[in-house]
Design a protein that fits this description.
Number of strands of chain B: 3
Oligomer: heterodimer
Largest sheet of chain B: 3 strands, antiparallel
Largest interface: A-B, 94 and 88 residues
Low-confidence stretches of chain B: 1-5, 7-11
Number of helices of chain B: 20
Strand content of chain B: under 5%
Order of helices and strands of chain A: HHHHHHHHEEHHHHHHHHH
Radius of gyration of chain A: 31 Å
Number of strands of chain A: 2
Low-confidence stretches of chain A: none
Mean pLDDT of chain A: 85
Chain lengths: ~500, ~450
């Protein structure tokens, strides 16, 4: 774990820099702190920051850039003829990485010497068996060109590692030395440190942008690969979801979208009336004591992890519904084949969303000016008439926003549908049938053995991007509505 | 005034007629509507609370069983002839005896125990051993390897009973439900009844569930959540170490220093959008960036922690900003007035005053991260058995492990219903953690919150 030790070294250097810088500053002021431009600790921070920050930044950039650099260099080494018909350069590259990793492990465990690993020739030894011994399973024999590329890959990454260690250490020592030399009683340490800290604060705040860019880019990139392998018309306008790992899959988002929207609709059917009436009661009728008890209790429902709801759907609600509607059930009908169904997932998700709808609506109803209620009550309307005819119409945009936010939560919810909704993609209006959703398929396509060169795996990124765009659109719309409405009374 | 409203004479007849003291049908209708509307509200709240109650009782009712486990106390004679044929106590030779070699010893111990107790049974010795867990042979072997000097002696052991026997004692398995079960027969249950009556077989508190490791599909009775708890702990360490400083730094910038420009606007929009992005999308990001691109190890708590950090950052930023905002400007002005720089005013005065609020927000963010499952599925924290507790910090961060919610999901997926009990039990532990964290947050808020 050289990176770990490198970071430890940097931290140690920074700590040493703090004390060294401080001591030197005091020494240049002849022991009298009043002669210093800044407080002594600022001189310490100055040395520590100059030693630590550039070096750690270089380390991070290097760690990010090295794989990309090596990948492009090495993949150029594979001759086009070496890529089998049925395969792609990406697949060969993943073989290369596996072989390189296997060689590394073999050296580490003493099965190969460093020299043997560097000079191994395919066919001479049973490399596949050797790899198997160190826990790297290969699908076929190691081909000569793959082995050669893997060795180049290893050499490059080892050289990169070494260069990284050297560069980072030099940067840290250089930063330390230059800051230490500059430390003097007249040096404006506080101003420099404060400027550096401000830059770090800006960097931390920009991480939010970076994350969004990361999400969008990682998904866009793989989605582009997916559309290179699979027709986009089938993805957006096809009617069947039938992934087949031997090729010829039909991967259409429409049946998944149908399942997602259907389950979300049922969830909202449960959550909106219950949540809305709960909010109205809590804000308009309930006494202080009831409110103080009921509101936090309802909000517990929002704090329960979704895995708990998932288990509840799978093991309690599903079987209970099957006992009612299934074969030999209480109602004597055979409408339900198994425990998983749209209704199972929808009901449980509805429970989860109740506090979401209720607390948002509660806030919105409470934000209504009291004068409107007083006016209506003064004209002789009952409380319910006031709520229905005055408060609700005014709060409607906000409530629509709250419902949209809840819908976006429902569409992006994963665990409940993974455990409660089933795995069959189809168009059906029967809520007792099991159906599948976008999030469920993302999980199933990306877990287990995945091959990042097949459309069956890459489709998950296209699904993810669609999900991201869908939820983002709903959120932006909801926030727009809520904000626009709020302005009316402010 | 009073006359006006109560003087029917001369005024136009009331629209609906009748006395003022008597409610008109219209008023009755309106009042009924009012009562109905109020009832809807009460019904909605009751429905919500009932659902909460059902959820909690289901969890407690189904999960508490996991904290108890059936054990069989047996005297086992560690036969020298079977375990150390050469008799030289050489550890290498003792290790050569596989768990299969221990099976006859266990069968012998069962037979001896039944003979001692005077229980009549027609079961063969293999079926006798069937009421014990498949884990027993390994347990015995580990003991012998650790204590080779005990070979040839008779030692008392506390063995796990098989999951069916355990289920029988807990009422999950009944004589009707085992008709087609190959793993256990009615005669074996008779034997279990007599053993339980004799006190050899008993249900006790199961510490191994809390601190143990997961077990394979065939041994639900041996599965525990301890190792995945450590996985969660390491992930939370990563989240705390990254999300707290980054979140606080971002909030300080946005709240105290940021000028009104397009960059600030963009950051704000991004933060509020990230807060609403489905968690699975963060999993896709983690898979694409940390695993496929940076080649960090799959299933490592470090990767899980990084993904959860990105996920919790918006929560922490939003709450930190709120608590920074609640510190009155007079504090800043006073600090600036006595000559502090802006940075000093913020770091020396505003930040300490906002600390309780920041801490509360961080704990709530951590609680949210602790219960999150979906992104962990994509970075491979399910689907294998985390059997060893990590020994070092680097091991804990980089060695494959599971996390509590991922472990619960893993158990829920398995076929044997004995694992479901474990899943519910795991949920009790998970919820205990969450309740503790949230209570801590509430206490912190109550204790340290200042109204200015």
């Amino acid at each position: 774990m050289p990176t770990f030790w490198l970071v430890a070294l940097l931290i140690a250097l920074a700590a040493a820099g703090f004390y060294g810088g401080r001591r030197r500053a005091i020494a240049t002021a002849a022991g009298n702190v009043k002669n210093l431009h800044s407080l002594p600790s600022y001189y310490g921070y100055h040395v520590a920051l100059s030693a630590f920050v550039p070096a750690i930044a270089a380390l991070l950039v290097w760690l990010l850039a090295q794989p990309m650099f090596i990948e492009t260099r090495v993949s150029g080494m594979i001759p086009a003829a070496a890529v089998p018909e049925s395969s792609s350069i990406g697949l060969v590259m993943s073989d290369v990485r596996r072989v390189a990793e296997g060689l590394d492990l073999a050296v580490e465990q003493g099965l190969l010497s460093t020299r043997e690993a560097r000079n191994a020739v395919a066919g001479e030894q049973d490399l596949r068996a050797l790899m198997g011994e160190v826990g790297v399973a290969l699908g076929s024999e190691v081909r000569p060109e793959v082995l050669k590329t893997a060795q180049a890959y290893r050499n490059l990454s080892h050289a990169g590692r070494t260069a990284m260690t050297v560069v980072v250490t030099l940067l840290a020592l250089g930063g330390f030395a230059s800051a230490y030399v500059r430390t003097h009683k007249d040096f404006r340490a506080r101003n420099v440190v404060e400027r550096a800290v401000l830059a770090l604060l800006v960097l931390a705040a920009s991480l939010a942008i970076l994350t969004t860019v990361g999400i969008v880019l990682s998904m866009l990139f793989e989605t582009r690969n997916f559309f290179g392998l699979h027709s986009w018309t089938d993805f957006f306008f096809g009617s069947t979801w039938a992934p087949n790992f031997r090729g010829g899959s039909e991967l259409s988002i429409l049946p998944l979208l149908w399942g997602t929207l259907y389950i979300s609709f049922i969830a909202l059917l449960v959550a909106v009336p219950v949540g809305l009436f709960a909010a109205i009661y809590l804000s308009e009728y309930a006494s202080g004591t009831v409110r103080a008890f009921a509101k936090p209790l309802l909000e517990i429902l929002a704090g329960i992890p979704t895995i708990v709801y998932g288990l509840f759907a799978l093991l309690t609600v599903g079987p209970a519904l099957a006992d009612l509607f299934g074969k030999g059930g209480l109602l004597g009908v055979e409408w339900m084949a198994g425990a998983t169904s749209v209704l199972t997932a929808g009901l449980v998700m509805g429970i989860m969303l109740i506090p979401f709808v209720s607390s948002l609506s509660d806030d919105i109803i409470n934000a209504e000016p009291q004068a409107m209620r007083d006016g209506s009550l003064g004209l002789g309307a009952t409380k319910s008439e006031t709520v229905r005819q005055v408060v609700m119409p005014a709060a409607l945009p906000g409530i629509v926003g709250a419902v949209l936010l809840a819908a976006s939560r429902a569409i992006g919810e994963t665990m409940i549908v993974v455990m409660g909704a089933g795995a069959i993609a189809k168009f059906s209006a029967n809520p007792l049938e099991s159906m599948t959703t976008i999030t469920t398929r993302i999980v199933s396509q990306l877990t287990g053995d995945t091959d990042f060169a097949s459309p069956e795996t890459l489709v998950a990124f296209a699904l993810g991007l669609t999900l991201f765009v869908l939820t983002l659109g709903l959120n932006v719309l909801a926030l727009y509505i809520v904000r626009k409405y709020r302005e009316q009374y402010e | 005034m009073t006359d006006l409203s109560q003087n029917p004479a001369g005024a136009a007849p009331r629209k609906h007629g009748g006395s003022l003291l008597e409610k008109s049908p219209h008023t009755k209708k309106r009042n009924a509507a009012e009562t109905r509307f109020k009832a809807y509200g009460i019904a909605a709240i009751t429905a919500g609370l009932i659902m909460l109650l059902v959820l909690v009782t289901t969890i407690v009712g189904k999960g508490t069983g996991a904290f108890q486990q059936t054990f069989v106390t047996l005297n086992v004679e560690l036969l020298e002839a079977k375990l150390d044929k050469k008799g030289n106590r050489d550890l290498a030779d003792i290790k050569k005896v596989t768990t299969f070699g221990y099976a006859p010893i266990i069968k012998g111990a069962m037979e001896a125990a039944i003979e001692d107790l005077g229980i009549e049974t027609s079961l063969k010795s293999k079926e006798l051993a069937g009421i014990l867990s498949k884990d027993v042979a390994a347990q015995l072997r580990d003991y012998v390897i650790a204590n080779p000097d005990q070979i040839g002696q008779t030692v008392e052991f506390r063995f796990l009973a098989s999951s069916r026997v355990d289920g029988y004692l807990k009422g999950r398995v009944t004589r009707d439900s085992i008709v087609n079960d190959k793993n256990i027969s009615a005669e074996q249950l008779d034997l279990v009844d007599s053993l339980a009556a004799a006190g050899v077989l008993e249900k006790t508190f199961n510490l191994d569930f809390i601190f143990g490791a997961d077990a394979s599909d065939a041994r639900p009775e041996a599965a525990g959540i301890g190792v995945s708890m450590l996985g969660s702990l390491f992930m939370m360490l990563v989240v705390l170490a990254l999300a707290l400083p980054i979140g606080v730094a971002a909030s300080i910038y946005l709240e105290e220093f940021a000028p009104q420009n397009w960059l600030t606007d963009m950051i704000e929009v991004n933060i509020s959008n990230l807060a609403a992005v489905p968690s699975i999308v963060f999993g896709i990001l983690g898979l694409a960036v940390f695993i496929n691109y940076m080649h960090l190890p799959t299933s490592a708590p470090l990767v899980g922690g990084l993904v959860l950090t990105l996920m919790t950052l918006p929560t922490i930023i939003i709450s930190t900003r709120a608590s920074l905002k609640s510190v009155p400007p007079s504090i800043r002005d006073a600090a600036l007035g006595v000559g502090a720089s802006k940075m000093q005013a913020v770091f020396h005065h505003v930040l300490p005053l906002a600390a309780p609020g920041i801490l509360t927000g961080t704990i709530i963010g951590l609680a949210q991260a602790l219960g999150e499952t979906a992104p962990l599925l994509l970075i491979g924290m399910v689907g294998f058995i985390a059997s060893n507790a990590p020994e070092t910090l680097a091991d804990g961060l980089l060695a494959p492990n599971s996390a509590m919610p991922a472990q619960i999901y893993e158990w829920a997926k398995r076929a044997d219903p004995a694992f479901y009990e474990r899943a519910w039990g795991g949920i009790i532990i998970l919820l205990l953690f969450l309740v503790t964290m949230n209570t801590l947050a509430v206490i912190l808020r109550r204790r340290f919150e200042r109204r200015w």
